[in-house]
Amino acid sequence: MLSPAQAPLYEIKANLFKALAHPARIRILELLAAAPENTAAVSYLLAETGLEASHLSQHLATLRKHKVVTSVRSANSVTYRLAHPGVSELLAIARTFLLDSLTDSNEQLRLAQQLPAGHLPEGSAP
């Protein structure tokens, strides 16, 4: 097994994207990115995500494991913070990419719907 220092950069990046590969984790990160100082209490994250506490805890553990978030315990409360401001930028870039892709898809759909019925390939539904 390779140590983290020996792991190729592409493997490290792949693990980062695996950590992000769940809608609940993306929602958690977006909530943190929108929060003051990119910090929020677990109670806030629970209320906003609607997840069960055990599920939220599992998602937060995954994000911590991959160093996407950090946590601080103070008495009975735990707060989470984005580990790096670049996480907010990554989320914004992903949103822009997806919106651009959807815009392109909608434009292609609009153009396809304008084609006369005779131009559709056989077997295609209008």
Automatic annotation (TrEMBL):
Span of domain HTH arsR-type:
5-102
Q: Where are the transmembrane segments?
A: none
Instruction: Show the CDD domains listed in the entry.
Output: HTH_ARSR
User: Which superkingdom heads the taxonomic lineage of this protein's source?
Assistant: Bacteria
InterPro entries referenced in this protein's UniProt entry, alphabetically: ArsR-like_HTH, HTH_ArsR_DNA-bd_dom, Metal_resp_trans_reg, WH-like_DNA-bd_sf, WH_DNA-bd_sf
Entry annotated with the keyword Transcription regulation: yes
**Which terms are listed as keywords in the entry?**
DNA-binding, Transcription, Transcription regulation
Protein name as it appears in the record: Metalloregulator ArsR/SmtB family transcription factor
* Taxonomic source organism: Pseudarthrobacter humi
Q: What is the lineage of its organism?
A: Bacteria, Bacillati, Actinomycetota, Actinomycetes, Micrococcales
